[in-house]
Amino acid sequence: AAAPKSSRDAAAILAGEPAPAPKIPRPAGDPFLYFVQVGAFSSADDAEQQRAKLALQGFGAKISEREQGGRTIHRVRLGPFDGQAEAAAQQERLKGLGLDAALVRQERN
C-alpha cells in the first residue's frame, strides 16, 4: 500500500519544519461579524449583573458602550462569531434558558 501523499515538500519534512496550521473555513463572502445581544442597559451596574449571570451559566459575555440619543447604553453581548449559524446556535441556547437574546450583525472592518 502506498503511503499517503503529503502536501508539504520532502525538504520541509526532513528539516523538521512545522506543518502549516489548518485554516478554519470562514463563510465565503460573508461581510459581517455576528453577536448575540442579551441586554442593553442604561446602568453599567445592571449590565455587569447580566454579564455575571451569564458567566455563572458558562457564557463569556462582554459589555460594550454606545452613545444613543445622548445617553450611554451598556450592551451585553456574546461574540463575535464569524458565521451566522454559530451565533444563532448560541442564541437558541440562551433562549432555551429563558433569556431574551437578539442576533446582531456588524460589518467587518
Summary of the model, kept short:
The chain is α+β, with helices and mostly antiparallel strands. Helices cover 28% and strands 31% of the residues.
Could you explain how this protein is built, in words?
The chain has 109 residues and is an alpha+beta fold. It is built from 3 helices and 4 strands, in the order αβαββαβ. It has helices at 10-14, 44-56, 84-96, and strands spanning 32-41, 62-68, 71-81, 102-107. Strands 2-3-1-4 form a 4-stranded antiparallel beta sheet. Strand 2 (62-68) and strand 3 form a beta hairpin. The longest helix has 13 residues, at 44-56.
Q: How many strands appear in the DSSP assignment? A: 4
Helix/sheet category: alpha+beta
Shape: elongated
CA gyration radius, whole angstroms: 21 Å
Summarize the amount of helix as a percent range.
25-40%
* Residue-averaged pLDDT: 85
Biggest sheet overview: 4 strands, antiparallel
- Percentage of β-strand residues: 25-35%
The rounded distance between the terminal residues' Cα atoms is 49 Å
Count of helical stretches? 3
Helix/strand order, N-terminal first = HEHEEHE
Low-confidence blocks of residues: none
Strand numbers in spatial order across the main sheet: 2-3-1-4
